[in-house]
Amino acid sequence: MNASISRTFGVLVGLSGLVSGCGPHHAASSNKVQAAKVAPTFVHGTGAAYPRSCNSMALLLSERDALQIVTEELSKAGVELSVKDRRLAGFTIDAVDERRHIAVEFVSCEDYAQKGGTPPESVLGAEDYQAVARHVAASVAAHGTEYNLGVFYDPAIALSPYDPVFKKSTDDFNRKLARTEGWDNIRAVTREYDAATADAAKPFIEASRSLLREQVRDFIAWLKSEGAI
After folding, report:
1. How far apart are CA 20 and CA 36, in angstroms?
2. What predicted TM-score, i.e. pTM, was given to this entire model?
């Protein structure tokens, strides 16, 4: 975890006790605690991706797929998000419900670096999506916001190359490739391999989607406890 994330994570940890100790009668205090408007990070999935590791292959959700899940779950609770960028504390936030003053952000592989993520220091290092989500939440909390903000992260489930389905696909690909000549034929074999590994990854992707739904459901419970919905 880099120094910037460590500092801002410390801010969030320090504020969490203050938030949990506030009842409804404290909300009307003249000294408003804006940090109470930022939800804690709801942990479902490690969020640690090892993109260059020889031991796993991170299966990451696209931002479009993730935001569809977030939107669907929140709509069940009466929150209608408009997917448009909004600037909060220097970050571009993915979507808001202006009527209810609710905002959401999903930390994806597409904006990992933009949100403060750093690349792994070695091939065995991880991109830490959960840490970046905490960093964004803590930064907005320290800055203050008019929105009830939930920051979600990619669960980053990893598919091991030793998974039986994946390993068989890889072994078949290597055997075919060894006896294949000509670029057109090599491309055809590669397309077959891509399709086979995509099938192997499907249950892992579904598991990742389920973990993201759990993050959003926890945020909904938090919104209810805060009287926001």
Report:
1. 9
2. 0.71
